[in-house]
Amino acid sequence: MDFTFTEEQRAAVEAARAVFSDVAPDRAPSPALTPGAVAKDIDRELWQELARTDLLGLTLSPDHGGAGLDPIALCLVLRESAKVLARVPLLESCAVATTVQRYAEDGLAAELLPRVATGELILTAAANGRSGHDPAELAVTARPESEGEGSPQGVGAGADGSGWVLDGVQTAVPWARVADRIAVPAHTARGRAVLALVPRTRDGVTLEDQVSTSGELLAEVRFDAVRVEARELIETEGCWDWLRSLLTTGTCALALGLGERVLAMTAEYTGKREQFGFPVATFQAVAVQAADRYIDLRAMEATLWQAAWRLSADAGGPLPAAADVAVAKIWASDGVRRVVQTAQHLHGGFGADTDYPLHRFHAWAKQIELSLGPATAHEEALGDLLAAHPLG
């Protein structure tokens, strides 16, 4: 069995490394020294460079101006972006665009995706629901416009092209202030999950600023009788589940890249820091802790590529792909937390110095750990999947 990456995937990594080589983790103000968000906008210079090197259309087909690669390639690039704390909606925009390509009607895909590939159009996703704990699709209702509020749900509602109406709240939506469209999961009266591509400026959409642990600007997005055209709403079964899995897997890639950079910083620091005339890296207690974190990273890597492969290949298995995604997020959440905590410990007081970037990585790691559910939430989801699909 060949586990090596393809030539095209390796080329994407090299292109990403070239783009991110000039990006410093402290390009924005420190979240520890900033009372609100570290910035109101994304790193526009970096975003344009990603577009210029064709990395924004990585998973889109050539018909839409993309490279035609798979989620594995996207995760490889996300891994590199996290090493420099890149302040761009690369995961959200690419994940939503890939979902649109896979599930939306051809007309909507042709309208949106070429502009995503060039960086002209930014997409994001509302994946946290009302509280961050309940399923996101339950936070917003979708009803056919023709039926009116309170009318019974008809069979085939929305198929007449009359449009839909959304009501509800989604919290902690990343990059909502700069996104052109927000992918909003919602539920119908029949309990079906649908996905709406809502323009940020649509009547009835209001945003309230929120600030993440990493200092980035999020938003609570409210939908008050927001009308969306029938073509802007994807009713295909499994669409939202697939997007959520891709977002979660991409978050695992961010955790891996961040953890690798932090462990490298720790190795460099402990190799130079001396006590009693010897580098502290030569002390057994330090070496053992660093080795444990290396093991964490290797487990994070193995489970990430298993999940990304299941999504890329649509491969079957004894459990649904969601189980592999849950395992990857369990390792990513717990692993990245342990990596940054050990790094802080081995750096001593220097790790808390705001002139040194480690505290930024710690803040981002905490945000990634809890994004799209902490380890305990995915352990529960995995248990439910095991109960529904007994092995053996």
Automatic annotation (TrEMBL):
In this chain the Acyl-CoA dehydrogenase/oxidase C-terminal domain maps to 251-374
Which UniProt key words apply to this protein? Answer: FAD, Flavoprotein, Oxidoreductase
Q: Any stretches that span the bilayer, and where are they? A: none
Extract the SUPFAM superfamilies matched here. Acyl-CoA dehydrogenase C-terminal domain-like, Acyl-CoA dehydrogenase NM domain-like
Q: Name one GO molecular function term.
A: oxidoreductase activity
Which residues are in coiled coils? none
Q: Where is the Acyl-CoA dehydrogenase/oxidase N-terminal domain?
A: 6-120
Region annotation Disordered: where it falls in the sequence: 132-157
Names of required cofactors = FAD
InterPro entries referenced in this protein's UniProt entry, alphabetically: Acyl-CoA_Oxase/DH_mid-dom_sf, AcylCo_DH-like_C, AcylCo_DH/oxidase_C, AcylCoA_DH/ox_N, AcylCoA_DH/ox_N_sf, AcylCoA_DH/oxidase_NM_dom_sf
Pfam families given in the database record = Acyl-CoA_dh_1, Acyl-CoA_dh_N
User: Would the keyword Transport turn up in this protein's UniProt record?
Assistant: no
Q: Does the keyword Oxidoreductase apply?
A: yes
- What protein family is recorded? Belongs to the acyl-CoA dehydrogenase family.
What name appears for this protein in its UniProt entry?
Acyl-CoA/acyl-ACP dehydrogenase
This chain's source organism reads: Streptomyces californicus
